[in-house]
Amino acid sequence: MSRILVTGGAGYIGSHTVHLLIQSGYDPVVADNLSRGHRHNVDAKRLRVLDLADTDGLEQLMRSEGVQAVIHFAAFMAVGESVREPELYFSNNVGGSLSLFTAMQRAGVNRLVFSSTAAYYGNPERVPIPEDAPAAPVSPYGESKVIVEKILRWLDQYRGLRGISLRYFNASGADPEAGLGEEHDPETHLIPLLLRAVATGQPITIFGNDYATPDGTCIRDYIHVSDLAGAHIVALESLLAGGPSGAFNVGTGKGQSVLAVLRAVEEVTGRKVPHTIGPRRAGDPPSLVADSTKLRRTLGWEPRYTEIRDIVATAWEFQRKNRAS
Ligand code: UDP
User: Fold this and answer.
1) Would you say 165 and 155 are in contact if contact means Cβ atoms under 8 Å apart?
2) Domain range for residue 194?
3) Taking the CB of residue 22, how many other CB atoms lie within 10 A of it?
4) Of 71, 74, 229, 302, whose CB neighbour count within 10 A is largest?
């Protein structure tokens, strides 16, 4: 049973991945400083409250636990916050990653799956976006991920560190049976905010309806968090089998407009979503859709959730269960 270190395993995507790792026969140990993650997302016996800046602590943990590979989620992920506090994003996301890579080097661990992002591409020239589109981030958050991907390419060349970067599109949905879902504070993501508007009656603001898209609202590729988790498992398996470093998009390849997601929420909940139309949000590209052919062909990954309605239904069930408990 391979021992896997998961940094940021108490967060949204991390906790779903830890759950799937256990189901797939792995034995994960989580390092999380709980600055943004939640203690209740991880079984206490697997959780080590540890900061990425603690290089010695990470090295010791990997040695004592006999870690064979690392899945590295721990990072800040709010685009708006990164614009207001770029230093925080570079020190936590880049500095924290470097500390982890140093600890891995010292402990002799040389397999890594890394959380990257569609924000890598900025405002892409072509949609669906292939992996060889240029890195052109438009926020410090996106840049922090591009820098780490670049560091990984050098460590592949000179340190023998094999790393797979997964560029996530819009992570969404939940695994209510596992008690896991999206709980950001403050919440900025579309689906939980639409569900909250339904539950509270407080209108959500749609950020612009004058984009050059069929209904004027932005188009995104919503990928279910359990399918994202599955991408980490296939990436990990490839690395453990001696496969090479690389970067892969993770999305369904299907784009949904903000209004289409709103309609899906109305269908799932059977209620109207109170909403108003506001101005555009700075930095929002009109359309981001993944070309994830490479992940499908190379690693044999397939998403199970391809309908936005089904994704929304899992998020709705999680919110209802959470409020009830
Ligand atoms: N969005 C919106 N109102 C909100 C939150 C988001 O209209 O209160 C839109 C946002 O402009 C984008 C889409 O929903 O077009 C998805 O935004 P989210 O923040 O969920 O993810 P992002 O695409 O920024 O990673």
Assistant:
1) no
2) 176-220+253-324
3) 14
4) 71
One-letter identity of residue 186: P
Distance between CA 96 and CA 52 in Å, rounded? 5
d(CA 194, CA 274): 9
Q: Are residues 194 and 112 in the same domain?
A: no
The reply to whether 207 and 274 lie within a common domain is: yes
Measured in angstroms, how far is the CA atom of residue 189 from the centroid of ligand 1? Answer: 6
Q: Which helix (H) or strand (E) holds 2?
A: none
pTM of the model: 0.97
User: In this structure, is the dihedral angle defined by the CA atoms of residues 82, 87, 93 and 94, taken in order, positive or negative?
Assistant: positive
Q: Which atom of ligand 1 is nearest to the CA of 204?
A: 8
Residue 212's contacts (CB-CB under 8 Å, 6 or more residues apart) are 286
Residue (of 113, 5, 6, 106) closest to 59 by Cα position: 106
Using a 6 Å cutoff on CB, does residue 116 contact ligand 1?
A: no
For residue 167, which amino acid is it? Answer: R
Of 26, 89, 120, 141, catalytic: 141
DSSP lists the bridge partners of residue 31 as: 7, 48
Query: 275 CB under 6 A from ligand 1?
Result: no
Of 142, 29, 149, whose CA–CA distance to 77 is shortest?
A: 142
Residue 102 CB contacts under 8 Å (≥ 6 apart), including other chains? 55
- Written as tens digits, the pLDDT of the chain (325 aa) is 789 999 999 999 999 999 999 999 999 999 999 999 999 999 999 999 999 999 999 999 999 999 999 999 999 999 889 999 999 999 999 999 999 999 999 999 999 999 999 999 999 999 999 999 999 999 999 999 999 999 999 999 999 999 999 999 999 999 999 999 999 889 999 999 999 999 999 999 999 999 999 999 999 999 999 999 999 999 999 999 999 999 999 999 999 999 999 999 999 999 999 999 999 998 889 999 999 999 999 999 999 999 999 999 999 999 998 876 6
